[in-house]
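Q: Give me the 3D complex with S-adenosyl-L-homocysteine.
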Amino acid sequence: MTSLRVLELYSGIGGMHYAVKESGIPGQIVAAIDINTTANQIYRHNFPDTPLWNKTIEGITLDDFNKLSFDMILMSPPCQPFTRIGLQGDIADLRTKSFLYILDLLPRLNRLPRFILLENVKGFESSSAREHLVKTLKECGYTFQEIMVSPTSVGIPNSRLRYFLIAKISTGKVLDAFPRLAESDSPEQPTLLRPPHPGSCQPEEEMQGGHFLYKLETQMDAQRKENQNNDLSIRQIQDFLEPQMEVNMEHYLLPSKILLRYALLLDIVRPTCRRSVCFTKGYGRYVEGTGSVLQCCMETEMESVFRGLDQCSGQEKLQRLLKLKLRYFTPREVANLMGFPQSFSFPEQIPTKQRYRVLGNSLNVVVVAKLLQLLVS
Ligand code: SAH
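A: Here is the predicted complex, encoded as structure tokens.
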């Protein structure tokens, strides 16, 4: 197979670029485009030889795109317009403008790219941006498939449920059809991506109902977490941690103020767990729903810390919580859980919070690599 010319739109820190490498598909990124200067610094640091355009997509002309003569588009348009927590401005949101511009350009390109892969948040599937996308793809003669996948489907102990669309230009042959990607209505067919556990990649904020246990957690949450931890097809968190001596633990321990105020809202995992919640761009700054924290002291039982915690005085409460030695995952560990290879690194001057931020916007490399293989096979 000849090397594919790949256009990476909304390139961020290059999750898509790593996915191409990981997939083993011969390809070169002919241009990566993003306006975020921090993300671009990181991209450049890791891929100094890739042309990176620090430009708004809607400012790039049809002519410029034609000159790139690409065979594949990889893109993760900004997701804020579609997140359930956001305002759901959808296509009225200014941040969708660049995406609509791409859809407008596509049919007018001198040569249609053979392959397209798009990643977005859950919620995109019911947006009108998605309707525009599907309509455009059909008009241009693409066959496509949509799928929701979480990294747990590829054995990684991290939930990050995302919408993916893969499309290829139709040649009118039966071979054009995509293999079945995940669980569907005919269970006897083999699946290429293991369907996630019921509820395992369901956003935690959507789970509700039941009585609170000793933590601000319901029986149902606890059961779901236990099921995930018992799923041997998923690796353990410890496989993704940095060697002890390499982490400056002090730097990552949760400060007392946070412990006292938010202890009941934390999602706590141990190295032997086979689960963690999605790391978002607010990790390390906000506590609720931004990602799991790690319990470093194994001798302390969670229950002994949390039972009756509410009745304790501030001092005692803190004493108890400190026993768990809770720390944030380091950016390197978050990158590991997101499938970034060891060769990925941050320029030294990028502060920790910014590292979390760009990682939170990125994607799971292993998941995308799998989808690329399916797309091109
Ligand atoms: N897949 C990327 C992250 C995508 S997040 C990764 O692996 O890191 C969306 C990115 O789109 C952000 O980095 C943001 O800076 C960029 N972006 C948003 N609007 C844009 C526009 N109009 N033109 C170019 N880039 C844009």
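A quick observation: DSSP finds 13 helices and ten strands in the chain.
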